[in-house]
Structure formats: structure tokens, C-alpha cells
Amino acid sequence: MIDFQYIFEYFNGAPLIIQIIWMVSCVLFVTAVVLIIYLKVFRSHLRKNEKIVKTFQKKYEELLITYLYAGVEDEEISSEQQSIINKLKSEIKNEFKREIVITTLLKLRNEISGEMADAIQELYCQVGLLDYSLIKLRSSSWYIIAMGIRELTQFNIEKANKQVVKYANHSKSEVRKEVQLYLINLFHFKGLDFLDDLKVSLSEWDQIQLLEVLQRSKDQEICNIIPWLKSENDSVVIFALKLAEIYNLFETKEVLLELISHKSENVRINLMRVLNHLSIFEAKEGIKRNFNKRNKEEQIAFFQLLENLYDTNDEDFILKQIYNKNFEIKFEALKILKLFHNEQFNNLKLTPPESEFVKIAKFLQNN
Questions:
Q1: What is the CA 74 to chain-centroid distance, rounded?
Q2: Residue 84 and residue 63 in contact, taking contact as beta carbons nearer than 8 Å
């Protein structure tokens, strides 16, 4: 039997630091016990919930498969199908069951194609799930709005376009992303119209996702991107530049030349890549005239352009830049000189022998 009086007397007679250690140990022990009990209860609840979900999924899968094969040729909806619709209407009044029905519909829709996939989409509207998705768009919680838009995307509900596009400038990036994916997945290049009035920044990740969806699309009829190249939103301009590069939009040449003096350095750097890709020689003189006013990243991007679009008119500029104070620019200039004027490169006075200039030249000679 534990002698609690002895323990109590020992605790009271112990130094303060020992008492603190014992108290902390007791608190930690109690906390650990409570957490273990909580985790056991929580895991038990999850297992129970998982069983319930599986039971309902199986039930709804059977109903949906019966619905798909219960059609009668001379009727749009058979009596058996109508009975299933009525049953599902009743079931989805419960939020928990409604989410399971949506998940089951999506699962079936991804496993089938053709008319049956269309029938699943129609059923989504017939049982009233579309109404619930539209109600989510009126929520005050951003994540519910995002969820509603995602559902409309998954079920290809084009008629919700006006309700969805008004969230294109939402304060939450998660909502904006769902809007963009809805528009691109359902309307392809026409869905890019949201760029006309986009006030917020289009992130690099958003741009990558949009381009990926567009390139997977069967509809590759590109729209007019010139208004976006003239946008006040720099991220929209950069996205339009990527479209010009990917889809070889040489007809945008005149607008691209105007962008050489754009206020944004990021736009100008992205522009260099497009000018290079489309081989727009006319851009070189304008850039060379104010070359020293541009930042180093932009200057280096211009040399990469020159390497592909070099002609004899660039010789004087290159000879001047081989003595540039910046190492990378000096390197790029010497590399171009070696490529296009190898004899002149070999005749350079390599003095003094320990200089950075000489080291670069010798490296290029050996490579």
C-alpha cells in the first residue's frame, strides 16, 4: 500500500527545484494520459464515421447505377428513374449525406464517358445539387465559396458563368484560383476574358496552372491577346507574353516593340525571352540605345537575345561591352565575339595576364 503521508512529507521537505520538477512531471503525465484517451476516442469515432460513409457510398452507388440503366428509349425519364431522383432529393437535405452523394457522383462520372457521363451531370441538376452549389456562392465564408465553384467546375455547369466570374477579384487567392480554373476548364481561351478586369496579381503558380489547362484543351484557337499586352496589370502582361511565346503569335510584334520601354523591369525581362523566341530583330536597336539604364538581369537577358539574333550591326556594341565592369556581361560579350568574330577574339591583347578579362578569354578559348 502506498504511504501518501510519507510522499507528502518528502515533497514538502524537498528543495524548491525538486518540487517544481515533480509538479511539471505530474502535469505532463496527466496531459499525456488525457491525450492518449482523446486519441483513442477520436480514432474510434473516425473508424465509425468511415464505416457509415462506406455504407452510404455503397447505397448511393447502387442507386446511381440503377438510375443509369433504368432509362426507357421512348421516355426522357422512366418511372424508376423518377423514383430514384425523388429519393436522392430527400437524402441530400442532410448535409452529411449530400457530400457523400456528390463524391459518389464524381467517382462514377470519372469512371464512365459519353452519354452516361452526361446523364450523371443531368442528375446533379435534377436532384437539386446544383442549387446547393449555387447557395455556397452566396456564403460569407471564402472556403465555402471556393468549394461551390469547384463543384460547378467538376460538373461542367456553364450556365453559372455570371455568378462565378464576379469572384475573379476576390481577396482570397484560393477563391480566385477556383474561378480561373472554372473559366478555363469550361470555356478554354474564351474563359480568359476575366483578364480584362483583373485588378489583383496573377501569381506565377496561377499562370502555370492556366497554361497547363489551356495546352491540354482540344480547342487551340487562340484569342486576341493584344488588350492584355497593354493591360495596367503587370502580371496580366507577363501572362500574355507567355501566350505569345507558346503560341508563336508573331502578329503581336508591334505591341511587343512598344513594351521595350515598359515601366516594369519584370515585364521587360520576360519580353526579352519572347523577342528572342519570335526572332524580332527590330527590338535590338531600341534596347541598345538605353542599355546602361537597364538593370543587370535585363542586360544579361538582352545578351542571350543577341546570341541568337546577332548581325554585323551589333559588332561595335559587343566590342564596347567586352570591357564592361560586370563580370557576367563581360563574359557574355566575349562569348558572342568568339562565336561570330573568332579571329578578332584571338587578336585581343590579353594583358595583364592575371586580369579577369584574360581569365575569361582563356576560358572561352579552351571551351
A1: 46
A2: yes
Q: Rounded distance, CA 123 to CA 68, Å? A: 10
Rg (CA), the chain: 33
CA distance 65 to 84: 10
Give 253's contacts (C-beta < 8 A, 6+ positions apart).
278, 280, 282
Task: Calculate helix-pair angle for 16-69, 79-91, nearest 10 degrees.
Answer: 160
- Residue 167's pLDDT is 95
286-311 pLDDT, tens per residue? 888 888 888 888 888 888 888 888 88
Instruction: With a cut of 70, say whether residue 361 has pLDDT above it.
Output: no
282: phi then psi, degrees, rounded to nearest 5: -60, -20
At residue 157, what is the residue type? I
Residue 116, all three cell numbers: 452516361
Average of per-residue pLDDT across 151-160: 92
Residue with cell 561591352: 321
CA dist 362 and 347 (Å) reads 12
What is the Cα–Cα distance from 136 to 151, expressed in whole angstroms? Answer: 10
Residue 177, amino acid: K
Q: How far apart are CA 56 and CA 74, in angstroms?
A: 32
Closest CA to 180 of 159, 157, 202: 202
Give residues with Cβ within 8 angstroms of 65, minimum separation 6: 108
Peptide bond into 15 cis (omega under 30): no
Confidence of residue 367 (pLDDT cuts 50, 70, 90): low
User: What whole-number distance in Å separates Cα of residue 331 and Cα of residue 304?
Assistant: 11
> Are 157 and 182 spatial neighbours (Cβ–Cβ below 8 Å)?
no
In single-letter form, the type of residue at position 44 comes to: S
Count of alpha carbons within 13 Å of 199, Cβ hemisphere only?
7
Distances (CA, A) of 274 to 106, 246, 294: 40, 9, 18
Alpha carbons within 13 A on the beta-carbon side of 348: 23
Q: Quick count: other Cβ atoms within 10 Å of Cβ 17?
A: 8
pTM: 0.78
